[in-house]
């Protein structure tokens, strides 16, 4: 059990969301939320995030070119990678978009997007720089499965590559057929999730859909969204972060609709709003272009609320 994003698929039961409670479901700000800036109590257009077992939130603080972690109930974060300004030195990042935890090596894997590389930073407090794992890839999202394969979405090639640790070439496992709306194509693949059967789920941003590629498949199937940008429950608008639970329910950040929506396998025609969906704004039940999501072991949901420069936590008890 190595990556938190997959760990939770084994232990986590996402609670049922019923009735009209979504309109009053409020989030609590656990990081940032006091305007954009580079102080350690601020974020600036955050993107990917992951939550550790002890509810520490680790955030790709994209426009601050750093990864910052906030322990539970902290009022300030702690910079754990980058934060030395934009650049390509080994102690710098350049618009990092996503981060995950590799428990085996006790390190963070980071998509250092504008440096076109995936880097590893040890979690030891003595760490001052990273090391390059993969070069020359225009990465967006990262995922590590329970066999420790690393999956990287590539917005240059409009595909997803899979890497064995130590291998720098990887193999194409989805897309890679130029940008388009065919079933074997993506138009800007953002975040991804891989289940225990090695099905690869991808938020296909500019096609406004979530795709599922079976192991060895040459094309995917649409599992959420109808490809038209819109706000009906059958639609998505710029999907980003996603999480698939053990029952196969798809939880996806529907950024353009400022909501998180869930599709269950038994009803593939439309989703149910989990949180947000109350228009663009900064109230506790609103988002402004949310980006990624993560669950902790208690089933609490964390969302990077990008243009509000904050991370919101939602509890469903
Ligand atoms: C933080 O922001 C200040 C003010 O905008 C700027 O002068 C400084 O260089 C920034 N620090 C880093 C590490 O980027």
From TrEMBL:
<keyword id="KW-0677">Repeat</keyword>
<dbReference type="Pfam" id="PF01436">
    <property type="entry name" value="NHL"/>
</dbReference>
<feature type="repeat" description="NHL">
    <location>
        <begin position="281"/>
        <end position="317"/>
    </location>
</feature>
<dbReference type="InterPro" id="IPR011042">
    <property type="entry name" value="6-blade_b-propeller_TolB-like"/>
</dbReference>
<dbReference type="InterPro" id="IPR001258">
    <property type="entry name" value="NHL_repeat"/>
</dbReference>
<keyword id="KW-0325">Glycoprotein</keyword>
<protein>
    <submittedName>
        <fullName>Uncharacterized protein</fullName>
    </submittedName>
</protein>
<feature type="repeat" description="NHL">
    <location>
        <begin position="37"/>
        <end position="73"/>
    </location>
</feature>
<keyword id="KW-0732">Signal</keyword>
């Amino acid at each position: 059990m190595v990556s938190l994003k997959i760990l939770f698929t084994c232990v986590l039961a996402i609670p049922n969301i019923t009735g009209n409670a979504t309109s009053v479901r409020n989030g609590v700000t656990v990081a940032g939320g006091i305007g954009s800036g580079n102080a350690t109590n601020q974020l600036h257009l955050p993107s990917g995030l992951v939550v550790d077992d002890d509810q520490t939130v680790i955030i790709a603080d994209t426009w601050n070119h750093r990864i910052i972690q906030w322990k539970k109930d902290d009022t300030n974060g702690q910079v754990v990678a980058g934060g030395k300004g934009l650049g390509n030195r080994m102690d710098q990042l350049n618009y990092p978009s996503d981060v995950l935890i590799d428990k085996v090596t006790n390190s963070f894997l980071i998509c250092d997007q504008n440096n076109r590389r995936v880097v590893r930073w040890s979690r030891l407090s003595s760490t001052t720089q990273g090391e390059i794992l993969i070069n020359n890839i225009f990465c967006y999202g990262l995922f590590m499965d329970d066999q420790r394969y690393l999956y990287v979405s590539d917005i240059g090639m409009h595909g997803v590559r899979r890497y064995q640790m130590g291998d720098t070439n990887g193999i194409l496992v989805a897309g890679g057929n130029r940008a388009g709306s065919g079933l074997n194509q993506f138009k800007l693949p953002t975040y991804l999730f891989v289940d225990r059967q090695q099905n690869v789920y991808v938020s296909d941003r500019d096609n406004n859909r979530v795709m599922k590629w079976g192991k060895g498949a040459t094309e995917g199937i649409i599992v959420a969204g109808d490809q038209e940008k819109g706000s009906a429950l059958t639609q998505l608008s710029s999907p980003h972060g996603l999480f698939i639970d053990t029952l196969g329910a798809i939880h996806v950040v529907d950024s353009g609709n400022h909501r998180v929506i869930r599709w269950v396998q038994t009803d593939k025609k439309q989703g149910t709003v989990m949180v947000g969906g109350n228009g663009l704004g900064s109230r506790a039940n609103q988002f402004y272009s949310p980006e990624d999501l993560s669950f902790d072991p208690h089933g609490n949901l964390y969302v990077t609320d990008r243009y509000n420069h904050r991370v919101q936590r939602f509890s469903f008890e």
